[in-house]
# Entry
Amino acid sequence: MAPRPDTAATDADAARPARATSLTAYPDGPVVLRGPFRLVDAAGVEVGTHRRAVALCRCGHSRLGPLCDGTHRSIGFRAPGGPPQAVGPRVTVPLCAEDG
Ligand code: FES
# Structure
């Protein structure tokens, strides 16, 4: 099976310096994780993704949790944004607000 175009390593990729992993909170929306990462759920089960960036739900209403599906817009979720934060190789992100 041929590698997916978005994940295939090339000589140019090998020559690039390693990118840092960062989290960026978007106003009234998700937290975007960029860079090399491995995503696992609260039970430690890996959430399969071949992307280099993912939008993580922080409103607690996504049907695709832990990924954002855009529901935050229809429920009027409000939260501040912020500049990108560099994170280390392991980070725990509280993704969803508790109900009640
Ligand atoms: S932040 Fe987008 S669906 Fe929750």
Remarks:
- The helical segments are 11-15, 71-75.
- The longest strand covers residues 21-25.
- The radius of gyration is 15 Å.
- Residues 11-15 form the longest helix (5 residues).
